[in-house]
Write a structure and sequence with these properties.
With 158 residues, the chain is of the alpha+beta class. Helix content is 20%, strand content 35%.
Length: 158
Amino acid sequence: MKIEKAVAQRYPQILQLVEQFNMREGQGAVFWEDNVIEELHIVGAEPDKLIWEFKVKEVHCNRLGNLHGGCAATLIDICSSFAVLTNSGKARWNLIGVSTDLSVSYLKGVPAETMIRLECEVQRVGKTLANIFTKVYNDQGQVCYTGSHTKFNIDPKL
């Protein structure tokens, strides 16, 4: 997982999380997300928005040669979770929480060797719940997948 220097400087909490994900790099896939994190790159951030790029490899595809639906859902889950840390509202979370709901719409397949762009927009972050909407674009700017994600805050109450 990579992060642009400007984003890391503006959002040190996101940089710290990226470093935690990268600690296991080179150890092989142990956790589900290990299959995708190597190709994830945070390329932009602003209040309530986090932008990623991901290079779709053959291993991420289904038998039809397009990004597997489960992989698309995993990408939306990971990327939108990180976006919680760009929240500009009053509520501040220390952790990225756990998913309570994830809904993905599959609009257009994306073949291997395509660079996709994931734009995660924080819609709301409260004390206990957060809502994030993600659009996934292919290299021609077409929306291929969308995702609506609800997160539950697991920050310690101390």
